[in-house]
Amino acid sequence: MKTAVACFAFVLGCLHAADYVPIAGGTLRTALPMDGETVPVAAYQLRSKPVTNAEFLRFVLANPEWQRGKAATLYATSAYLSQWHSASDFAPHAPNAPVTNVSWFAASAYCASEGASLPSWTQWEFAAAADASRKDARNDPAWRAQILGWYEKPSVERLPDVGLHPANIYGVYDLHQLIWEWVDDFNGLFVTVDSRAQGEQKVFETCGAASLSLGDKENYAVLMRIALLAALNGQDSVGSLGFRCAKPAQ
Predict the structure, then answer these.
(1) Domains of the chain and CATH, by start
(2) 92 preceded by cis ω (within 30°)?
(3) For 95-137, what is each residue's pLDDT tens digit?
(4) Mapping DSSP to helix (H, G, I), strand (E, B) and coil, where does residue 45 land?
(5) What is the pTM (predicted TM-score) of this model?
(6) What confidence tens digit (pLDDT) does each residue in 164-210 have?
(7) Could you tell me which of 113, 9, 123 has the C-alpha nearest to residue 51?
(8) Distances from the Cα of 237 to the Cα of 70, 78, 101, angstroms
(9) Exposure class string for 176-189: b at 16+ Cβ within 10 A, else e
């Protein structure tokens, strides 16, 4: 009971608007060849940090249809928020840690509550290409190695708070080194040896040969994210998968 009260008190204490940062957009050298080697990305706003446990608890308290045990099975599996102590208590996880085990449907509903949506893949990829001083650091082997180092670390039972790593040049935190993230068009990220593939297409989605179809074959970190998202259904939940939201440019 004490932890539940503490969680609720924290939620009441963090009633403030989420921070969205403007991103001017531009031309993106995308990893997905079906979109062409480069794609235009219009200006947009992106949440500076992933959605946290406390923020998502506030959402489910206001929208009980998204509470664990009440969400329709069509929109969330039994793994939905299964790491929380109860439907209204995120203990033993920290309030400022990113919420995970959230389905795409629930993440989309949360973003809609902020007047936003999940970012598209190209919006996420555009922002994630940057480091603290460059808008596109992807050709830097040291930067890629730093990101890959995160994948080599064993997963932890309790995630750290958001915002502990330095922000990138846009002021966006944690696009790498903390969690995977849902994107709005995740079910369009077909990574196959042949983009015309039909039927058993998903069999190839996580196949190593699929990497040959990517536009940036050396960016293994991006390949892993695409392969994970392409293998999911909208009602799935993963313990290392969270989300952030995006809005049109003002």
Answers:
(1) 20-248 (3.90.1580.10)
(2) yes
(3) 999 999 999 999 999 999 999 999 999 999 999 999 999 999 9
(4) strand
(5) 0.85
(6) 999 999 999 999 989 999 999 998 876 554 444 444 344 334 444 45
(7) 113
(8) 15, 9, 4
(9) bbbbbbbbbebeeb
